[in-house]
Design brief:
The model has no long low-confidence stretch (mean pLDDT about 85). The protein is globular. It has a nine-stranded mixed β-sheet with strand order 10-9-11-12-8-13-14-15-16, sandwiched between helices. It has three domains: about 40 residues; about 230 residues, P-loop containing nucleotide triphosphate hydrolases (Rossmann fold); about 160 residues, 2-Layer Sandwich (Ribosomal Protein S5, domain 2). The protein is α/β, with parallel strands linked by helices. About 30% of the residues lie in helices and about 25% in strands. It binds zinc ion. The site of zinc ion (ZN) has 9 residues, from loops.
């Protein structure tokens, strides 16, 4: 017995109310409640008589057996496997996992996933035919038609695989899709995108929080039942959240985020949530005419962008996961016309710029309070680590006094409120990476104790 009624559902968190409210009581955001039709079952769900208790109970010894059987399988794209998790050589995705790939429209989510698909199909040939990956791959096209995807695939250089193993499913009805998947029995499913799918059991339109949640839940159940991995493409709204968002993040096993400067050619894949691995690894890709190229040595690439020889530039070393990265920090300090000078950061937290400006003003007597400060990380990278403090402070000072740093130096260190240089984790690995890339001089807590001392030695401070 069901009756139709209308409820108001928060498009941000999924909280629902019987009447419209200006502010969501679940997540406190404003104007997010939208009317949706809902079918309320009066009796609630009854347990099916066919369900066996052994289907959902398991002993500890069985868990261990299950765990060891959880082998991962590779996408044969190294930077992608790195983010999915696992230790080399057993890296990649886990059977039954549902992975959401989010990112702004146009950033390249579909391109990356078609590349993953083709790479996996072609791997059969690479490995001499006895690969665990061999089988069909299903691609659900809700956004584009198969012809458009085929066009993209043709641009990729890889063509040594059986084209019959790639099955396009042109439907947006999640229940028909599930039926097709059960029949095809693919080894991997790609859903592009989750926001285009609907189920007729709900009356909301595609992309509404109710539909997105329900479709994701049905696909998750399918992934667990058939024990196959499913990738879901999810678009990110202007505010930077995946639309139909929080609810989706809770349902899936991993959330991967593809970001980067849309005008530039670098893309960074990061795991925001990962039930099967660490969340601190990043994959770095470079956009080429044919698609994405894995960048296994990002430091070299980031330094390619480094200008040097201009006031306001400094090289730092930050850790992204287990990998040290050398990147350039740029600072621009100019006299301000404003009563409240501007502080603008790209890839750097604003609060870090403010703290460092205050430290330089107090302990190095630099007149930063009358200046606008702009600081950015070159290459569109987003650095959250305090290890960039020292390089940022040097870049800002270098721009202010209009003097370049003459030598090739890498700066590694956090700066405390008293102007002291503080140690950072894994210093030795960072120094090793700097040496590997030809930097003879590294300035860190090992060599210097305060920012004042560093600036004096560089000739930036009298
Ligand atoms: Zn809410």
């Amino acid at each position: 017995m069901t009756k139709k009624s209308s409820i108001y559902v928060c498009q941000n968190c999924g909280w629902s109310s019987l009447r419209w409210l200006g502010q969501c009581q679940g997540c406190n955001s404003w104007n997010t409640l939208v009317e949706e039709m809902s079918e309320v079952s009066k009796t609630g769900k009854e347990i099916k008589s066919s369900e066996k208790i052994s289907d959902f109970t398991i002993s500890l010894s069985q868990v261990d057996a299950l765990k060891s059987s959880k082998t991962r399988f590779s996408t044969f794209i190294d930077e992608f496997d790195r983010v999915l998790g696992g230790e080399k050589p057993n890296r990649g995705m886990v059977n039954g996992a549902v992975m959401l790939i989010g990112g702004e429209p146009g950033i390249g989510k579909s391109t990356l996933l078609t590349q993953v698909v083709v790479s996996m199909l072609a791997s059969k040939e690479k490995k001499g035919g006895n690969n665990i990956n061999s089988g069909k791959i299903a691609y659900i096209c809700g956004e584009e038609n198969p012809a458009q995807i085929a066009l993209r695939i043709n641009r990729l250089k890889e063509n040594n695989y059986d084209q019959d193993n790639l099955i396009f499913i042109s439907s947006t009805n999640v229940d028909s899709i599930a039926k097709a998947i059960k029949k095809i029995k693919p080894i991997v499913v790609v859903v592009d995108s989750i926001q285009t799918l609907t189920t007729f059991d709900l009356t909301g339109s595609a992309g509404s929080v109710g539909q997105v949640r329900e479709c994701a839940e049905r696909l998750t159940t399918l992934a667990k039942n058939l024990n196959i991995p499913i990738f879901l493409v999810g678009h990110v709204t202007k505010e930077g959240i995946i639309s139909g968002p929080k609810v989706l993040e809770h349902i899936v096993d991993s959330v991967l985020e593809l970001s980067g400067d849309r005008t530039g050619d670098l893309r960074i894949l990061r795991a925001v949530k990962n039930r099967f691995g660490a969340t601190d690894e990043v994959g770095v890709f470079r956009m080429r005419d044919f698609g994405f190229e894995s960048v296994s040595n990002p430091s070299e690439l980031f330094l390619e962008y480094a200008d040097g020889g201009v006031p306001g530039s400094a090289t730092v070393c930050v850790m992204e996961g287990t990998r040290p990265l050398l990147i350039e920090i740029q600072g621009l300090v100019v006299g301000s016309q404003l009563a409240m000078p501007r502080r603008v950061g790209r890839g750097i937290k604003l609060s870090r710029i403010q703290v460092l400006a205050a430290v330089l003003q107090k302990h190095c007597k630099l007149p930063l309070s009358n200046n606008d400060i702009f600081a950015s990380v070159v290459g569109g990278f987003d650095v959250k680590e305090p290890a960039l403090d020292l390089g940022l402070a040097v870049a800002m000072t270098s721009s202010l006094v209009n003097k370049t740093i003459k030598e090739k130096i890498v700066f590694i260190g956090e700066i405390g409120l008293l102007g002291e240089i503080r140690s950072v984790s894994l210093l030795d690995r960072r120094i090793k990476e700097a040496r590997r890339l030809g930097f003879k001089k590294v300035i860190s807590k090992k060599s210097h104790s305060s920012i004042n001392q560093v600036l004096k030695e560089l000739g930036l401070l009298k």
